[in-house]
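Repro:
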Amino acid sequence: MRGKKFSIGLKALAIFAVTLLVTGTWAATNWKEKALHNFGKGTDGWWPEAGLIFDAAGNLYGVTALGGPNGLGTVFELTPTAGGGWKENVLFGFNGTDGWAPSGSLIFDAAGNLYGTTEWGGIYYDGNVFELTPIGGGNWAETQLYSFNPNTGTDGASPYAGVIFDATGNLYGTTEYGGIYGHGTVFELTPNGSGGWTEQVLHNFDGTDGSEPAGLIFDATGNLYSTTGGGGAYGAGTVFELTPNGSGGWTETVLYSFCSQPDCTDGLSPEAGLIFDAAGNLYGTTYSGGTYDAGTVFELTPTGGGAWTERVLHGFGKGTDGAGPSYYGKLIFDAAGNLYGMTLSGGAYGFGTAFELTPTAGGGWTEQVLYSFNNNGADGISPFAGLTFDAAGNLYGTTWEGGIYSCGGAGSACGTVFELSPVYSCAKCSHTADRELNVFPAERRDVLEQGGIERQ
């Protein structure tokens, strides 16, 4: 279980086309990490648990679980500045009654408003769904769309994983706890036409079908999918589907229950959500289990008649390949079909990794550690979330701890926002030997003009 407790913007739409160039002709030989921001200075927030999103102008947005002007978390923006730096701006600081501890990734609507969830706080202190609206002059106003109420007996509690939109503007999400059985819910928020939103619980988990659901995704026909960190047939988590039943309700189907194999070699505790590939297969991670009991990357393939087959693509814990895939970190694909994610621990220094999985001939997958976090100066540690590409093929993420600033009396550093840039080798280019014949993405055009080719 947890040790701690799609409308991203136009620029993201260009990622896959550009990334095809990055991962096709030019294969990165290593990756360079740079901390873009260190949290903990003044009131800029502490402990970013969620991943990042871009807007169309190339600015990054995210949340911190604590810190900020009131100490209870922030929504922040990072803007690139001349000279290659980034400037942080706190868009909103939570005060408790308007939310506390945002932990899920944000989303944009078409008008440029931001939406997210807080794990705690709100009117009834069990979390809320909020909207942030730009009001000019760099300022943003918060509206609580819904505050979860434990007094109803059926409402959920702690919506830690964020929300997603459907095509008509309704919001969908999950709560970690609450509901009729106390094991969490799937909910929908619908605009009521008067400026408010109406909540409907679509499913109550009872433990046998899962417990503590993660963030949701849609398929092309409007069905919802996710994982649960616990529960299911073996008590080790599930993958589930929710299908509209035509009568206004939804029907849940458990697609897979983990720990069905001896010693849980198929994985244990799938804490993060899922992604689809173009063929309709699902991919995700388990925090533990697998051959080395340090987590897995898995694939679920539909086999007809509603059945799905699970396959472990990689088991963590062998050597320095990472351990414990990140709690809130869904995997992402590049256009060539490679998978990217992070681990909370393990790696060369024991503080987590960023990794890539590449399909090989014969149906296997090969893992490459792109970066091992080492807590050296501005470097972060313990990445809780997933990665995000920019249009040039760089990766961006957050670390929950590490960096250069201590969180007051909390006894640990406050986390970072970082960038990973691929480094490409070339056998013939215009750069001198002191660059070790490596080329960064911004220099790719120059290398091509000089006749640079991939070093074999």
